[in-house]
Amino acid sequence: MTEKELKAIAAQLSCPTGDSGLEIAEKMNQTNSGMISNTIDQLNLKPNDHVLELGHGNASHLREIFTKTTDLLYTGLEISDSMKDESEKLNKEWVDKKKAEFTLYDGCTLPFSENCFDKIMTVNTLYFWEKPVELLKEIYKVLKIDGMACITFADINFMKTLPFVDTRFELYDVEKFKNLAKEIPFKSIVAVEKNEIVESKAGDTVNRKYLIMKLTK
Question: What is the pTM of this model?
Answer without folding.
Answer: 0.87
